[in-house]
Amino acid sequence: MADTISERSTQSEPATKHAEPALPPATDLYQIDGLLREDERLVRDTVRAFVRERILPVIGEHFEAGTFPKELIPDIAGLGLLGMHLEGYGCAGLSAVCYGLACQELEAGDSGLRSFVSVQGSLAMFPIWKYGTEEQKRKYLPKMAAGEFIGCFGLTEPDFGSNPSGMRTTARRDGDTYVLNGTKMWITNGGIADVAVVWAKAEDGIRGFVVERGTAGFTTSDVTHKISLRASVTSELHFADCRVPAESMLPGVRGLRGPLSCLDEARYGIAWGANGAARACFEAAVDYAKSRVQFDRPIGGFQLIQQKLTMMATELVKAQLLALQLGRLKDAGQAHSVQISLAKRNNVREALKTAREARGIFGANGITLEYPISRHMNNLESVYTYEGTDEIHTLIVGQAITGLSAFS
Questions:
Q1: Reduced to 3 states, what is the DSSP secondary structure of residue 218?
Q2: Are 325 and 300 part of one and the same domain?
Q3: Is pLDDT at 100 greater than 50 in this prediction?
């Protein structure tokens, strides 16, 4: 029987073997581009062109100066990127995969730009869209989608980051108003925000409030001396007997479920965005390795450099596939928060490793802003921590695997 099978196999072979397929580009070794729909590629290519033409020429200067390029906000809004995954109220209503691809391309420019878009859409607009009244949605969302109102998200406090249930910010009901007291820390967009979605402890549990800039008792102060996310506004929010109308409360949710659902939206974008930073570092490292000559040959010809590039390429492929499958699940309404945690944890961790490996390939040149490596590496140190630290996401996945909580 074995001989018969062998004979049939030999007889079925063509007279001439087909040539090996052409190798895809190094940044798409598994031809993930072919898994995208036409509309998804259009979003990706549009945002990529915007980053190349408008962000990359200026981002190094903004990073060095510690300033956010506010002049780009109208153009970002004009592309439909603010709240792009939300339906109605002036939002583009695009798919989760389209949103992820936009985050990927923005972060290939700089994490600060992706953070701005993530916070605006996923942390400020999303809770109003999901849990707000019709009046709140009509009042805020169209202007936020147009970039006329900038939003921020107030959850983290100086003493309560990974444990938001311990927050000390309070909201006391007083007639037809609430009185807010407390401080929020590490708030992206805080210093430029027109609207803050703030989470506080009320008598009936944790509640979200929409607080407008200019409200008496509400002030902000920017965090300075940063060496990460320098092209991004990071602030503290201060509430001292800040009185807001009762109708400023988001009525559709109570408890930590509200802010945590918003964090899932942001974490999803991060899982994609980190791939953009990793790809930018990888592309720069490949170009440098092929052109940098030492010992009379390009350093890309040395085994240790090829090993580094191979590991970077491998992890980039894995992270891209992970993000895409997560996006497909999200679009099908099947994405679980644990899956989002797994993707955020893996993709940021591997992006940071890629940036560090790339820095080594560049040698001393890697620490200058002439190249994007150290800028991305420093930014990713923040991305590694915010919207849930690596350790927190490890425990979230660990609990899902074992059924046992390590948090308490």
A1: strand
A2: yes
A3: yes
pLDDT of amino acid 160:
87
- The total number of residues shown for the chain amounts to 408
> Max alpha carbon distance in the chain (Å)?
91
Total domains present in the chain: 3
Residues 366 and 271 in one domain: yes
Contact 215, 204 (CB under 8 A): no
- Mean per-residue pLDDT for 208-228? 97
Rounded to 10°, the helix 337-362/390-402 angle is 140
SS3 4: helix
1 domain residue, yes or no: no
The domain spanning residue 116 has which CATH number?
A: 1.10.540.10
- The pLDDT tens digits of the residues spanning 251-268 come to 999 999 999 999 999 999
Helix axes 56-65, 111-118, angle to 10 degrees: 90
pLDDT one-digit tens code per residue, 53-72: 999 999 999 999 999 999 99
Tell me the pLDDT band of 20, cut-offs 50, 70 and 90.
Answer: confident
Report DSSP letters for 254-311, one per residue. Answer: -STHHHHHHHHHHHHHHHHHHHHHHHHHHHHHHHHHHH-EETTEEGGGSHHHHHHHHH
Residues 384 and 276 in one domain: yes
**What is the CA angle 99-327-123, rounded to 5?**
50
Q: Which residues contact 299 (CB under 8 A, 6 or more apart)?
A: 289, 292, 293, 305, 361
With a CB cutoff of 8 Å and minimum separation 6, the contacts of 262 are 122, 123, 126, 127, 153, 197
What's the number of CA atoms in the CB half-sphere (13 Å) around residue 275? 28
Give the Cα separation of 346 and 82 in Å (integer).
26
pTM: 0.92
Q: Is the dihedral of CA 80, 83, 87, 91 positive or negative?
A: negative
Active site residues: 387
- Taking residue 349's Cβ as centre, other Cβ atoms within 10 Å add up to 18
Q: Are residues 279 and 398 in the same domain?
A: yes
* 70 falls within a domain: yes
How far apart CA 322 and CA 119 sit, in angstroms, is 22
Averaged pLDDT for residues 279-307: 96
Residues 274 and 229 in one domain: no
Domain range enclosing 350:
257-402
We report the CATH number of the domain holding residue 161 as 2.40.110.10
For the four alpha carbons of 99, 276, 271 and 313, in that order, the dihedral sign comes to positive
> 189 and 237, same structural domain?
yes
